[in-house]
Specification:
The protein is built from 4 helices and 2 strands, in the order ααββαα.
């Protein structure tokens, strides 16, 4: 049978372990005996919004150019200018 302390370990090492989950989700475990244990959780909406800004909407650029052919900054600038030229030509 799982003890309350073991469940706390499971919560912190398995469920909340991914680097961002503990920033957004908080948990509270109530009860002493296995039959009494209840898990309460909540989501921090401000932390979730901040996480969305930080992690989501990113782009990964792949290039066949070597470092000698173009720096990372040059590749990013070329990508951005390509995107901008599409917007301009669409008008």
């Amino acid at each position: 049978m799982i003890e309350c302390g073991e469940l706390h370990v499971i919560l912190s090492t398995a469920i909340l372990a991914p680097r961002w989950v503990s920033r957004v989700v908080s948990t509270t475990l109530f009860g002493e005996q296995p039959s009494e244990l209840r898990l309460s959780f909540s989501t921090d909406e401000k932390a979730r919004a901040a996480l969305e800004e930080e992690l989501f909407g990113k782009r990964i650029l792949f290039s066949d150019k070597t470092v000698e052919q173009a720096s990372t900054a040059t590749i990013v600038a070329e990508y951005r200018s390509q995107s901008q030229s599409r917007v301009t030509s669409a008008r």
